[in-house]
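Q: Got a minute? One more chain.
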Amino acid sequence: MPICVAKIAVSAATYSIDRPYDYLVPEELVDSVSVGSRVSVPFGRGNRSCEGVVLALSDASGMPALKSIRSVLDPENVLDEAQVRLALFMRERFFCTVYDAVRAMLPAGLWFDEQGRRKASDKTVEIATLALSGDEAEALVEAKRLRSPQQSALLELLCCFGSLPVHDMLVHTGAKRPSLNALVKSGAVVLSKREVYRRPEIRGTGDLPMPCLNEAQTRAYEGLRSLSFSGAANAALLFGVTGSGKTSVYIRLIDDQLRAGKSAILLVPEIALTPQMLDTFSAHFGEQVAVLHSSLSVGERYDEWKRIRRGEARLVIGTRSAVFAPVWDLGVLIIDEEQEETYRSENSPRYDAREVAKYLCAHAGALLLMGSATPRIESMYQARTGRYRYFELAERYNEKDLPSVSIVDMKRELRRGNGGDISSFLRKELQENIDRGEQSILFINRRGANKLVSCGECGFTYRCPKCSVSLTYHSARRRLMCHYCGYSRRVDGACPDCGGELKYVGSGTQHVEQELRDCFPGTEILRMDTDTVTPVGSHEKLLDRFRDENIPIMVGTQMVTKGLNFENVTLVGVICADQSLYSGDYRAGERTFSLITQVVGRSGRGEKTGRAVIQTYTPDNQTIRQAAVQDYEAFYASEIELRALQNAPPIADRYTLTASGQNEEQVEWAIRYLFDLLSLSAKEIPGTAVLGPAPLSVVKVNDRFRYRVNVTGKNSAAIRKALSAAVIECSGDKRFRGVSIYADHDPSD
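A: Always. Here it is, folded:
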């Protein structure tokens, strides 16, 4: 009998030794092992049991002796061949192991705990089914009515419904379990198990008619629909001002795909946006909708994954990881607010959901649609150069004007003696809204009360002992906290060095909330940041309260800048527009423009006219003025010119190699070695430049020092191969033991 050899990616392999390993498939497992199977194999010198995934099967191996697969871990494959190819693509593109890619693709419930049990199992309920004909059952009901009233009540209920969950029957009738057992023993009732899904709450019923489109929406929809049914893969950018009705276009496109028997994926940038999107789309598509994001319980996420894989849900809505949903016959993949950095993973595998989406659509012949009011410069560049098709919604759906914007110079406020966060002009506007019963949203991109606490006499500043950052003061618990590692401590009553008075510098959401309470006593104020939305579902409850209770003011971080649609919000305030301008990142201007434009767009989305107030210490800054009037064209023109001078994306691609470790001297040594390796490789790749080495802006995080080398050039197999080789060589060098090295494509920091 010919041998069967499986090429397997093993979980224990690090990036430097990650490759397909040959294993012999035992005769008794030949029928149950296929591409995509998860298996247990011996690995390493000690032959410890290790998980692996089968990448390919063959009838020969170049190895003289092979170890054998020990067991198959799943009753059916958790990956198909297309998903295996995606994992291989991710390894090559995102510098991760194949198994790291597989971990990102599968829900946590499929993985095993320390006892070897799955973290989530199928949930079943016990079902009671009537085993008699209707006449026989009714006769038995009457016969037992006096002698066994509980059995009679159970039988009578089953006569009406045929079968019911046992728990519901017992609760409804008040009967006890022995009564049901007696009916089962007599043969009148049969018990069975039925699988049920653990699902997040879905409020929509699917009976809402399709939205009506205006002329501009119709033009965009018809063009996109033509692309989606062209039979070839296509990519398109839908640029629409805030409130222009991009969601209605999404709904119509998805409906076309579902009617054609295809599937759709809709990605949103944050969990906070998922409930509103879910309500909107479930109202149109009902049970066809599945939701995937990290706030779901392990069981809910596992069951939603099963519904998708079985074809019971053909529209998937979720955050970044929803791009891996195992949909059947993908027709359209939509990335809403495509400019958001949250589509990029900061942990291994460091994948970009937008790049994964391109791969999926290219191989499925599907339409990739990216929508935004402030597209990434890279995306607009691709549209202008013809790689993406371009569609535009230049006006709001209800033909209302965009909010009128006032820019307040905070330096002038300081000269007038107002050192607070709320300018006199914004205070007046807020009071007018409160008097009219209208709502306001205030945005400040920093949580906590104060950025730092320092001594005005000796200059002492509280700093994190594990990270090279100052501690942020949180007034709710009177604690200082590091937003990088989570370290916290209580604040002292006076400077611990000299006993001087402590100063609280730089405001956050908590400080702004308190100032608002002082300005408007008795007015209810809602705060929305990661300190208030940590519990599962709390973001949805906060947004529901804001809408249903008509709370006058909501203050928050980036969570309040996009995707929210409240008709009674007529005023938006940007507390410190300069905050993200001077981060040192080449995307600082783009990030600032997007944040201001998005939050200003939350105002005036109903029948009432909207206003916005932007507070800044640099009122003449070009980016802030362009964002105030939502002039994306002018911003793009100036930004693309700046990117050309910097040789930054999209003019050239940027890669980074990062070294981190607890010994700073060793980390610096490793990064200089990497720089030398890459400098040699770059000479063989035209147009490639190596910059650095340099520390990251926050050099130490959680007791690990971080240094980086930047590489610019064309995104090609040659440059990725050079980076991969440098990582592997340095990782295997004993001189750098304890130093972690990883490569990334255009990271956000």
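A: The two ends are 56 Å apart (CA to CA).
Q: Perfect, thanks.
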